[in-house]
């Protein structure tokens, strides 16, 4: 395989990060996330319904986060610019690391940057922040 092919393949791996969702601003407020909740199990490779209180108007995006709460980073866009209906069906990728590595879901209100997030392990517990 040529360098060009490897480079192109490498760039493709980062495509999910090149998204157009609004940058989160301020402190987390509104749109409280219900599921995944404190005792939720989020199985990989199977549909899971993310639910929240849709208390803002407009569109929202959901972003998968990774890392400890002191250094969490976005790793993939779950869905961009959907109506704020209070739920979204998501199938977590089977390549996610086991519960020793923590993940979170961030809900961002498009246009304002208002956000809410929850921290969870791949197949374990979650906490709203």
Automatic annotation (TrEMBL):
Protein name: Yeast cell wall synthesis Kre9/Knh1-like N-terminal domain-containing protein
A family per Pfam: Kre9_KNH
Keyword Transport tagged: no
Region forming the signal peptide: 1-20
Keywords: Signal
All residue ranges annotated as the Yeast cell wall synthesis Kre9/Knh1-like N-terminal domain in the record: 36-119
